[in-house]
Write a structure and sequence with these properties.
Elements (H helix, E strand, L loop, with lengths): L1 E6 L7 H13 L5 E6 L1 H4 L6 H17 L8 E4 L5 H10 L4 H5 L2 H8 L6 H15 L5 E3 L5 H18 L7 E3 L29 H9 L18 H9 L2 H11 L6 H27 L2 H29 L12
Parallel strand pairs: 1-2, 2-3, 4-5
Helix pairs in contact: 3-12, 4-7, 4-13, 7-8, 9-12, 10-12
The structure holds adenosine-5'-diphosphate and tryptophan.
The site of adenosine-5'-diphosphate has 18 residues, from α1.
């Protein structure tokens, strides 16, 4: 089975990305042939700054590696190092109705927000389908917000196969229920666009300050509290051991615990878990040449696979005569 996923280099990764997608994807390394990439073509729909594109791309690569991506087993690459996906997107666009793209949540949200929408944003799900189908992916680990996009990729695979024969593997999203939507500081879905995100690699002091900003109700130390409706507790559950979770829940239900104490407990478990990886992350970022070498090797491996899949697709629809389809 092959697993594939991507993350856009549009900001420093946050805890929602970490728990919702990166960690579940890293676990698949043991059971799947994994291809994970930096979705820089997708980032270009909103990020028009050369230096930031480079910096965030390295940060995303360093994040994967610091958290345990093993480049000997897993292919880590930049989307734009395999430009063939842009060609495949064209082939898929030709079997996709405009109506399907108009129904995409991300596009509709941009429209409702009155944003000035570029064609890349409208076309986004087609390029994402090309990413998935170019590598014969079976499973796509993502957070819940990406489910519709993966379903659109399925539809495009089925539509293409229906017209041209069995060319593409039909993919499935893999979404873990317990981390499908991680809440942010204000309780809404954690997202860089809501300004409620906790960045994964904040130094301890800043991490603590950020977590102290979690929105709670106005109950005081002597009031009993409901852990199940508390934003602090819902993050705590994701980092603490079952014993720690039970102990803190009991303290919520009795007088004597202020939200400040709960936030301190949260900070301690999060910081303890992230500190060793944070050191690895800083060390990786200090060696951009090493990061670039990992990405160059990944690009080579990814491109070889994409070329063969795209060769199948071109042939199925009667395109192309030049013998360019082989190893890059
Ligand atoms: P953002 O919503 O902050 O822009 P991205 O769209 O770059 O984040 O998401 C990258 C990956 O992380 C996707 O697979 C997405 O589903 C997942 N993800 C993002 N935010 C969350 C969240 N709050 N909870 C669970 N998964 C998330
Ligand atoms: N759209 C995804 C996001 O915003 C990123 C992405 C691009 C992706 N191509 C993909 C995810 C292919 C999974 C598979 O998070």
């Amino acid at each position: 089975m092959r697993a594939l996923t991507g993350i856009k280099p549009t900001a420093t990764p946050h805890i929602g990305n970490l728990l919702g997608m990166i960690e579940p994807a890293l676990r698949l390394q043991d059971t799947h042939d994994a291809y994970y990439f930096i979705a820089d073509y997708h980032a270009l729909t909103t990020l028009h700054d050369r230096e930031k594109m480079r910096q965030y791309s390295r940060e995303v690569a360093a994040t994967w590696l610091a958290l345990g991506l093993d480049p000997a087993r897993t292919v880590l690459f930049a989307q734009s190092d395999v430009p063939e996906v842009a060609e495949l997107a064209w082939l898929l666009a030709c079997v996709t109705g405009v109506g399907a793209l108009e129904r995409a949540h991300a596009y509709k949200a941009a429209q409702e927000a009155g944003k000035d929408i570029n064609v890349g944003t409208f076309f986004y799900p087609v390029l994402m389908a090309a990413d998935i189908l170019a590598y014969d992916s079976d499973h796509v680990p993502v957070g819940k917000d990406q489910k519709q996009h993966v379903e659109m990729a399925r539809d495009m695979a089925l539509a293409f196969n229906h017209r041209f024969g069995e060319v593409f593997v039909v993919p499935e999203p893999l979404i873990r229920d317990e981390v499908a939507t991680i809440p942010g500081l204000d309780g809404r879905k954690m997202s860089k666009s809501y300004g409620n995100a906790v960045e994964v690699w904040l130094p301890s002091k800043q991490l603590r300050k950020k977590l102290m900003g979690i929105v709670t109700d106005s109950k005081g130390v002597d009031d009993v509290k409901d852990p199940d409706t508390c934003n602090v507790f819902s993050l705590y559950k994701l980092f603490a051991t079952p014993d720690q979770v039970a102990a803190l829940a009991a303290r919520y239900r009795a007088p004597g615990l202020g939200y400040g104490h709960a936030k301190q407990e949260l900070f301690e478990v999060v910081d303890a878990q992230l500190a060793p990886a944070r050191e690895r992350y800083e060390a990786l970022l200090a060696e951009p040449d090493r990061l670039d070498a990992v990405l160059a090797d990944g690009a080579h491996r990814a491109r070889r696979l994409a070329l063969s899949v795209l060769g199948r697709a071109r042939d199925a629809c009667g395109l192309g005569r030049a013998p360019r389809w082989g190893a890059p």
